[in-house]
Model the fold of this input.
Amino acid sequence: MEKLTIIKNGCVQNPNCPKIKANIAIHKNKIINISASCEFEIAENYDVIEYIDAKELTITPGYFLQHIHGGYGIDFNTAKAEDIAYLTKELPKHGVTSLVATLMTDSEENIKRQIKEISTAMENQQADSTKIIGIHLEGPFLNPDFKGIHPDNHILEPNKGNYERLLAKNDNQDKKENFKKFENDNIKIVSYAPELDKNLGFTKYLAQKNIIPSAGHSKATCEELKTAVNAGLKQVTHLFNAMPQLHHRNPGILGEALTNDKIYTEVIADNEHLHPIILDLILRTKPKSKI
Done:
């Protein structure tokens, strides 16, 4: 039997678009129509129709979190796969439909263990839960001068060797066979200090593997960041936080990130990590599609 789900009596709000009163038709977990009249236009083609009353609430695309360390008492640096499953069961009530699980700087042993736990959770995801689409390594490849709360005794130089060792299995296999492919494939973002990346070999390596290189906990100059962008760097992690302040004679990483439209900028928009005026400055400076 063909089933159609229609969300009625809601106001649809898409980014950069006016809010409109409309119904949403869903078939096989995909939106197939958005209009005030879709109920009448296509409903007759289905055997079963399920109605959901939005009660005049606003309906928006789900939140995608590319940098989240946990919630509900769950920390990705310590959680078991079953704990992560609990977290992803709770997050949809906040509108979060997908996320990239973020690990902080930690011992190599613990990062290995947590990559495995998150990967296990990814293999056993439930349809009604927030989807984990990958892992974000925020460290350990950071600049110690801007480490913030990251433990400096576990910080490593950003290079291919350290990265691959971080993903190697904890067993007695021969070193040539010592890498676990699925764990490599689950890494989607790496935050690191590009100014410490010799000849930008690590930047190029990440880009070649379709992993997003993101400058974070860094004191790169504007020239160093621009060069890294040309080598494959895509974004800056939590803009303004854990990096030198903007200076009128030394624009640094902030000046380049704000004015280079090739760079995506991640922002913690809670009015605590950044003053509202700084948020306004970012919104006035960067294209909205790059924030």
Observations:
- The first strand starts at residue 3 and ends at 12.
- The chain is about 25% helix and 25% strand.
- Residues 241 and 273 are 7 Å apart (CA to CA).
- The domain at 3-59 is CATH 2.30.40.10 (Urease, subunit C; domain 1).
